[in-house]
């Protein structure tokens, strides 16, 4: 009996649709790359198919990123009438049959399969070395990006870095240790950094460059606690920012205006959705605006992903980023009403995605957003954190990186404010500065799917979910179980070699 995991992988090979880079491309069957890939353009089409899986409802359009938001301490369930699978993820009582996991697990492997097909297809062609390596580098970046998410969510996972032309070869596949998965990720990113271009055609930010690969190398090294390498990679990106066209956007709000998303210098890597367009398998179906929007408001939403009151109340009102990030009042039947009058969940809602979705449906679905998976601001914060670890405390350089982000935050739509104030190095020790950087990440990158990964890599779960200052208390949080999600039960049922299940499930 064939396993579901390799059925998922074969599905990607047989129906790899083109992504948002060109939704008009015809699908490419991928069961026999040596006969189907006749040119570099054919390989690019396969890689675009991988981007199509990423910009789908199962991954960056709703399921996967919703799970990341709910797992952290910045987003809670609003409407408790939402399906139980979401409540389980949020409340740390999920089981191994969770519907969200069953939804996004196979899609990540479809992305990986499309990337592997692109690599195999390239190797079957006689191309100039520069062209061949550039194509392989882009596919390897996509593969690394996918595994980087999977390994942080699940730990040990099946690691497949080759094209599967014989489904029988993977029906009994077993897991690879997280440590070995990370080595594969780093190898892919190093190759990508070497061979990707400095800039993509038309400066498209939804395709990776050398700067993208280096930024992710910095992030992976930070996650692994290799702070010298994290600092080295982040510093290299910062020193070469003009080369890659990176800069902080002057107005923080512009980062979340869908109509401006294609020209933002702050985007290091983005997932591109095209307004009012969708394809099979949930392709290009962005549902995050309605998931975070206000049920019953004139600007329609569903009140599913809603921060707790503590998240809102503890954020200083003088911070312009708070104004951009929240919607504490809304038009209801043409009247501007405070959140206490919201029909379903009487709390300020997330505004980053619902306020300016661009060309979209009436509830914000099928938006025109380009979701930043990596921003230049995050590169600065990686450099600041890693530098403090390397030097056993804050340095003027590290403090300067944080202050550059705070300086941008003081530009409130063109009006200069005095908050947040610059960080002063005097009196700050290493622990205090690291805490400051983590909190700056929490605010600067709020609701951008980063917080759970910070909680996990710094082992903050007990503190942030059971401590006295918890923004979203979950006294049942168990560090022996809850830093990982369960492998889907159906995968283990059809292939016991994927066991053992993650602890506690």
TrEMBL record:
<keyword id="KW-0472">Membrane</keyword>
<protein>
    <submittedName>
        <fullName>RagB/SusD family nutrient uptake outer membrane protein</fullName>
    </submittedName>
</protein>
<feature type="domain" description="SusD-like N-terminal">
    <location>
        <begin position="94"/>
        <end position="222"/>
    </location>
</feature>
<comment type="similarity">
    <text>Belongs to the SusD family.</text>
</comment>
<dbReference type="InterPro" id="IPR012944">
    <property type="entry name" value="SusD_RagB_dom"/>
</dbReference>
<dbReference type="Pfam" id="PF14322">
    <property type="entry name" value="SusD-like_3"/>
</dbReference>
<keyword id="KW-0732">Signal</keyword>
<dbReference type="InterPro" id="IPR033985">
    <property type="entry name" value="SusD-like_N"/>
</dbReference>
<feature type="domain" description="RagB/SusD">
    <location>
        <begin position="342"/>
        <end position="505"/>
    </location>
</feature>
<dbReference type="InterPro" id="IPR011990">
    <property type="entry name" value="TPR-like_helical_dom_sf"/>
</dbReference>
<dbReference type="Pfam" id="PF07980">
    <property type="entry name" value="SusD_RagB"/>
</dbReference>
<keyword id="KW-0998">Cell outer membrane</keyword>
């Amino acid at each position: 009996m064939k396993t579901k995991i390799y059925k998922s992988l074969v599905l990607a090979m047989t129906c790899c649709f083109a992504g948002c880079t060109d939704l008009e491309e015809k699908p490419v069957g991928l069961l026999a790359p040596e006969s189907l890939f006749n040119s570099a353009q054919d390989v690019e089409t396969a890689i675009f198919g991988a981007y199509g899986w990423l910009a789908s409802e199962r991954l960056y359009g709703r399921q996967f990123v919703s799970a990341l938001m709910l797992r952290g301490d910045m987003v809670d369930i609003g409407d408790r009438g939402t399906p139980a699978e979401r409540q389980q993820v949020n409340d740390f009582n999920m089981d191994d049959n969770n519907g969200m996991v069953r939804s996004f697990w196979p899609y990540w492997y479809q992305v990986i399969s499309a990337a592997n097909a692109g690599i195999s297809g390239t190797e079957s062609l006689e191309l100039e070395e520069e062209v061949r390596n550039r194509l392989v580098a882009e596919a390897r970046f996509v593969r690394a990006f996918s595994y980087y998410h999977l390994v942080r969510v699940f730990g040990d996972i099946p690691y497949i870095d080759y094209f599967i032309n014989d489904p029988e070869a993977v029906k009994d596949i077993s897991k690879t240790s997280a440590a070995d998965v990370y080595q594969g990720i780093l190898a892919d990113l190093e190759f990508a950094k070497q061979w990707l271009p400095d800039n993509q055609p038309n400066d498209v930010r939804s395709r990776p460059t050398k700067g993208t690969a280096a930024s992710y190398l910095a992030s992976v090294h930070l996650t692994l606690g290799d702070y010298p390498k994290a600092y080295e990679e982040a510093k290299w990106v910062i020193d070469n920012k003009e080369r890659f066209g990176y800069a902080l956007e002057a107005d923080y709000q512009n980062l979340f205006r869908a109509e401006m998303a294609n020209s933002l210098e702050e985007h290091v890597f983005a997932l591109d959705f095209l307004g009012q367009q969708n394809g099979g398998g949930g392709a290009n179906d962005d549902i995050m605006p309605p998931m975070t929007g206000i049920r019953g408001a004139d600007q329609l939403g569903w009140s599913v992903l809603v921060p707790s009151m503590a998240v809102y109340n503890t954020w200083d009102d003088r911070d312009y980023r708070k104004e951009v990030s929240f919607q504490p009042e809304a038009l209801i039947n043409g009247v501007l009403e405070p959140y206490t009058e919201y029909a379903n969940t009487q709390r300020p809602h997330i505004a980053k995605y619902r306020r300016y979705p661009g060309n979209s449906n009436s509830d914000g679905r099928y938006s025109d957003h380009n979701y930043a998976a990596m921003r230049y601001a995050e590169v600065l914060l990686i450099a600041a954190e890693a530098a403090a670890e390397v030097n056993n405390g804050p340095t003027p350089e590290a403090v300067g990186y944080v202050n550059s982000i705070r300086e941008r935050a003081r530009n409130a739509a063109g009006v200069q404010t005095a908050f947040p104030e610059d960080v002063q190095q005097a009196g700050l020790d290493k622990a205090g500065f690291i805490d400051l950087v983590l909190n700056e990440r929490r605010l600067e990158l709020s609701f951008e799917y980063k917080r759970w990964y910070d909680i996990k890599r710094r082992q903050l779960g007990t503190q942030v979910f059971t401590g006295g200052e918890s923004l979203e208390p979950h006294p049942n949080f168990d560090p022996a179980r809850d830093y990982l999600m369960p492998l889907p039960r159906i995968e283990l049922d059809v292939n016991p070699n994927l066991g053992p299940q993650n602890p506690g499930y």
